[in-house]
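Continuing from the previous page...

OK, I double-checked the sequence for TonB-dependent receptor against my notes and this is the correct one:
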Amino acid sequence: MAGGFMKRQVAPESTSSITAAAIARKSAIASPLQLVSTLPGVNYGTQDAFGLSIRNTISVRGFQQTQLGYTIEGVPGVDQAYYNPYTESYADNENLSDITLIPSTSRINDPVQSSSGGELIETVRDPSEKAGGMISYAAGSYRAQRVFGRLDSGYIGHSGIRLFGSASYTAADIFAGSGRSNKTHVDFKALREWGSIGRSSLFVSYDDWKNARSNPYTLAAYETAAKTNNNFSVGNYASSYITGVTTNYWKNYIYHRNSVLVSFQNEFSLARHLNLHITPYFHWNFSNSPGQTSLNPDSLYSGEQRVSLDTSNLTLVNGRVNGLANTAQREYETGVNTYIQYDPIHSNHLIFGYWFDHWNMDATSGVTPLDINGNASSYMGKDLLYATNGSLIAGAKYQMSTMINNFYVSDTQSFLDDKLKITAGVKEMMFYVSGTNQLAGPQYHFSQAITQPMPRVSVSYNITKNMQVYINGTTNARPPVPLSTYPNIYSTATGAISQSGSNNSRMEYTISEELGFRYYGAFNFDAAFFNANLTNHQVTTQAFINGASTNTAIAAGGQTVRGVTAEASLHPFYGFAPYVNGQYLHSTMDNNFNTASGTLPTAGKIAVFSPKFMANVGVMYTKGPFFANVTFKYVDSQYSTFMDDQSMPAYKTVDLGLGYHFPKWFVLHEPVLRLNFMNLTNKAYLGGISTVTPNARPTRATNGQIVAGSTPAYFLAAPMTFVINISSSF
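Thanks. Re-ran it with the corrected sequence; updated structure tokens here:
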């Protein structure tokens, strides 16, 4: 329906999906978050149009992306350090068969730990039954290019096994400032179906990603840059290095990420009406998010310990050492999700399962010296500076691990010939974190154990075969953000604590309710009224510590979320298939916010990342071999401070896609030419909030003291961008 943008749903909760047919109409160079950007309630921001920027962010119903759970092929798809998704690193778009978004809650049997605000589910296509493949080439604005190739084996002899392997390379210049981003990706999937017994599938992906970044802008800097020129070089990272002058050379802000993901899904029939699902997995990441810094050899610290530096082999500029400030992190995650499905009678469906996850990470934020030309010998966290006593000069060096034991049970009973379904369930998350801080200071070991039960209930009724109503009440939780909560981080210039670790934080906890109605018939309509109460809210924001870009979390207390979301579409009429969705959101803070100078009166203020209105209007057109689509998106202004004294302006965008299916030509079965325009009107706008602050202007606290203001920062959105793509199966 609606070209794959409105899939028929039956689950007793608000659910939206984008199918492979809709993905095939979008830009070939797009991230999964870009693909779902037009789904109901999705507030999407990006710094590029090619899925190459780590600053692709979404919020849903006022919940940030770090409050969503992510699964890919049945396994966790979130980076557990900060709960960021990095969905771009899991699977190429051509290999995705479906992306589903569940706002405000998650499926009870999915292995998600960060789903206090919803869940995003990616499913990878199965290998074809016949041998063949696909090739694709795309080029576009800012020297963008992408090459993709996939081979399907078909059934291999009489083994019953079929598999595919694919590889892609994507690269593009950033539109503002200097630098070129690139990404190499490999996917592999093997499938063995065991007849009536079940099926097994192995999915493996590898990703190598380098992102040349643009500097976040304050509102004043953005307005100044917009008036000065159309490339926003004012206030951005410097394009060239001048010794003793340049403090933000673009080469020293390139983000690096490598990852490997392995999922082994198995479904077996143990007996009649009794099925076993078991999915072991492995996930490995390396990342470094550096920045430029300058060190004074007369005031250097390793943790809180003052140290000396031998500068005889270093380049000194005005008596200081210029360096690359690293945030190198190595992560290993293993786990297994197992559940049993049992139907004791035809009208009853029981699920009982257990999810175990173990995650380990080593983090080091040392400094790599720069030469006279501003270049570092390593951009991967190596060749670090050590003090004369052998101590690492760093603000952070620690090891951390987490363990999750999650039990869940759910039972669905049907009545009235399956028209009425009542589901009740509960899951219990037991979260344990421990670590050691390897720098001098008051913190050596840290640990915490938290347990959180999460009950849920839902009722759905099929009024007719095309009409459904449902109501649900669910609870979801998210443990504290590990890297922003537990370890101490120190200033390398003063030895003072920049981030004070805590061992007694509480889980973020959401109680949500929905009332929904669906109709699929002469037209399609889906609407949901929602209410959610969030406690122990941690707002994730960008921060620069010792010169390096990192994420941090701000404890913001409670939040109340209320609103309505609706979407509708018509069946094709003379080739035209219109689609529209919209959301009204009223999200407020429940508590005042404590600062070092006093308590700010934030209770009742509109929450950050919560635009009041959003809407998407699209029309898909298909006539013979020709197809086209146009989408208009509106996002209302959204606050970037807890005091509501600064906001990111509202914006409107228009995207256009055109395509043509050519007839079969030699071995090319389905040649397709696509042309996509993003931000067709070339509107300059801010696309996302980078840094949230308590207040932008000096504000009087409840004790009468004045709390100094701090300025929020924003991501600059991409201008008009086009991509032309030619592809074909064979």
